[in-house]
Design goal:
The chain is mainly alpha-helical. The protein has eleven helices and no strands. Helix 7 runs antiparallel to helix 8.
Length: about 250
């Protein structure tokens, strides 16, 4: 069912004008397209289903170009700007557009060093800020960014042990990014193992939240309160996993 749902949703999104959406709701759509781009780059015969790589990336860049403008607006809430900057750096990782990277990094340090501060300052303690710190660590090697991201991850893991949902999916992405980017380089082996155990624990809750969102979308469609962008991103990730399992077995 999920495969058919994803293909149907992907086709419907071809006609969507993302400029008519609130920009803070577009990150999941962007990452959904980046996931499809990565999938088709590995399995090029999927172009018959999803279109050529250029067209897929141009769809993602429609959102990224908007973020290029918004990320420079200092009057916007820091959390939103942090998300836009982190997303610009994510786009660069799959398609080397240096302009996106430079604007993302410049905005990041503008957010993290307000008023000309000589040390990093966290304007808020959100998943977007955590992703921003991880990307800054990855692209600049700034160890302080890695340390601060680690503190935010520890806090997030603490309150996700209860029934707290909050921004669970946002924190899941941030925690996975931290583990893959910072943890592998900075954490001792025993801490890496502990973090992996935490990810296994949290993955069960994340899967349930994702399943609930998909079920609600199937039942009510876009008239429901569910975030359609998140559904698109979830289904894209699952389709990528399914493709990996399918085609790796044939090798």
């Amino acid at each position: 069912m999920e495969k058919g749902l994803f293909y149907d949703l992907y086709d419907r999104l071809r006609e969507v004008n993302f400029r008519s959406y609130s920009p803070d709701k577009l990150s999941a759509y962007l990452h959904g397209y980046l996931t499809v781009y990565a999938m088709v780059r590995i399995y090029p015969w999927l172009e018959t289903e999803f279109g050529v790589l250029y067209d897929i990336h141009e769809r993602a860049k429609e959102i990224a170009r908007w973020y290029e403008v918004l990320v420079q607006k200092k009057e916007l809430p820091a959390n939103f700007r942090a998300g836009y900057a982190a997303d610009l750096m994510d786009v660069y990782q799959l398609y080397s557009d240096l302009d996106f990277l430079e604007k993302g990094v410049d905005a990041a340090y503008d957010i993290l060093t307000p008023w000309g501060s000589q040390k990093l300052v966290l304007p808020c303690r959100t998943s977007n800020i955590c992703r921003l710190l991880c990307n800054c660590y990855y692209f600049t090697g700034d160890a302080e960014c890695g340390e601060l991201a680690g503190k935010l991850v520890t806090e997030a893991l603490g309150y996700t042990r209860g029934n707290h949902r909050g921004d669970l999916l946002g924190w899941w992405d941030a925690i996975c990014l931290y583990d893959n980017v910072v943890g592998l380089m900075e954490l001792p082996i025993e801490e890496q193992e502990r973090l992996k155990e935490e990810r296994v624990r949290l993955a069960v809750r994340v899967r349930q939240v994702e399943d609930d969102m998909i079920e609600q979308f199937v039942r009510m469609g876009e008239v429901s309160s569910v975030d359609v962008g998140q559904v698109f991103y979830i289904l894209a990730k699952r389709e990528f996993v399914a493709c990996n399992e399918k085609y790796e077995k044939k090798e």
